[in-house]
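Morning F.,

Quick status update on the modeling queue. The single chain you submitted on Monday has been processed. Sequence for confirmation:
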Amino acid sequence: MLERLVVLLESHSLGVGFVFVFGVLLLCGFGLPMPEDIILVTGGVLAWMASPLEEPSFAGMIRDEGLLLMVLTGLLGILAGDSVIFWAGRKLGRRVAEFRLLRHMVTPDKLEKVERRLRQQGNVVVMIARFLPGLRAPTYFTVGHSRFAYWKFLVYDGLAALVSAPAWVCLGFWFGDDIQQAARVAARFSNYVLLGLAAVLLLLGGRFWWKRRQERAAAPPRA
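Structure tokens below.
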């Protein structure tokens, strides 16, 4: 998919690439089944193609205007797409079952699961969900439905996006001269991210279990 997207867009200006990345990320908020990481890596490859740098380097990357603008475009696109889901939850709430398009993406079971996690973990859930494609939409939908403050949602979602968007775009830029290698590295990077999140979730679960155990041990015995 990555190679096809690059071939489709490489003959156009980088401005078209900006519009493409922002537009597709926005459409993801409306339910477009397109992996965000592929879109962001594609944006990085396009930025590399338009760059005057002969070889990518850290010093050159932080001064490359096209790359920096592509990272910013990715961030804005992510926040715009996630905001669509958030406000859909705020406006539609539990009426999601009435809409055939959303019924399969945001099931009642997922809503109940996310609401429970949101009550227990709060802001942490918003940040972690950014890296979990299968739970991101129902999480942000439920966050909006639960009257979570929009400014707070943007802060925590933005903090998570500040990790993912630059990472994916810079990965595409660094491996821009070898699209197949970029795709392979992106796939491995996704696996590492998931493993890291699994470790974090295990730690949070263990901490919650230990805290509950201590609370039960400290509670006075029932008469």
